[in-house]
Amino acid sequence: MNETECDIVEKLRIKNETALHELVKMHLSFALDLHNDNFETLFDSHPLVEKSKQNPNGSKKLKNDDGIFHCELTEEGICRLYILIDFIVEDINITQEGIFRKCGSAVRQQELKYKLSHGTDVDLNSGEFTVHDCANVLKACLAELPEPLLTDIHFKLHHIISDLISPSMSPTTRDNAQKKRLRILQLFMLLLPTSVRKFVQNLILMLHKVTQNCEQNKMDSRSLATLFSPHLLCPKNLTAKDMQKYSGVLSDELQFMIDNVEELFQPPKELITDVLIELKKCNEISKSTDNVLDTAYSFCERKAGDKNYTEIELAVLYAQLHNMPDNPWKQKLLKRFNRQNGGLSPVAVKKSTPGKRVIKGIGNQLRKVGHNLFSRSPKQMKLNKETEEIDTDDDIIDTNETEQTKETETDVKTTSNGTQTITESEQIFV
């Protein structure tokens, strides 16, 4: 399988396996020319044939057998079977005549099955077991699976594919039908679980290598397909009558896979185009929902809220200082407060409307009222006769505590020594 195409498909499988399966099924429906209703029936759990009353191969696990025989194939079981495959494909073994056909020793095979089933280390190069022993144990493991390696639910699909080819077709039409058949099988392989698909690929590659040495071992693709199709493609509940009916069709199917294994596990070009589009969509969705950016934005908002809270509390403290009686201690505290605040008076909170706060400098209010409230130099704080009226709302400081007010109502008169009074009705915080 082309490495680049494999990486593209596997990348989408990791990001969104459901999307990949939907794309594969969509391309399968196009290739088979089936509508939605007819297409979905291919993937139901009911096989094309009726179930036999009893499974001839048996579906129960053998007593005291907790390994890879008579049970579903697991990751660990697949790894143990790779030991057999690696031994069979060695040059000295794959050329042995009658491989997968000759029986070998039943006693040695039973011992090998026991060791593989219980995870015991096996040294196949020690000469204790022959290649025929290993080949028959591998075949027996596949035969004893509760479900065929290529699954029951795809049995109908293989039956439909077999109808694509007819002996009466012209060479050109037959060639086009074979290309379509290959494209359908390529898509079908992508629906298998990753570990199973890789194992099937290595298994069929092994069978293909056997056929390449058919002059020595006398085993061609047709012979191997006849031996392995019941274990790879046929449902375990087939009756003897059904087995005879479908064995030829499924043998043709497996023979085609063996002869075209180099292209069988390559994804179709049309699918790659759609996979690239889907990957682009996944990347765009990932960028639009970046949690790091959202978190940073929320952090800035929280910091801004802390700053506003500090300014309000400073204004409250400043107002409390001015509520103290006039004495040297008050002047000392005000001087120290202003020095710590950088020479700037804190802000006050303006309540122009209920529930709304506006920040305003308290220094402006105090200058409007009269600097004589906290200054010993009356000459610097003369007010004009028509002093600007101070809005009551502008002078309210939100303190969350009891506020003290002082109302004065008098006339402004300027005397000869420069003293002054307040002419308007005003409400201030002192």
TrEMBL record:
GO terms (BP aspect): regulation of small GTPase mediated signal transduction; signal transduction
Comp. bias intervals (Basic and acidic residues): 403-412
Region (Disordered): 399-430
Pfam families, A to Z: RhoGAP (PF00620)
Keyword annotations from UniProtKB, A to Z: GTPase activation
GO molecular function, a single term: GTPase activator activity
Keyword set includes Transferase: no
Residue ranges, compositional bias (Polar residues): 416-430
Superkingdom classification of source: Eukaryota
Domain Rho-GAP stretches: 71-265
GO CC, one annotated term: cytoplasm
Classification via SUPFAM superfamilies: GTPase activation domain, GAP
Listed name of the protein: Rho GTPase-activating protein 19-like protein
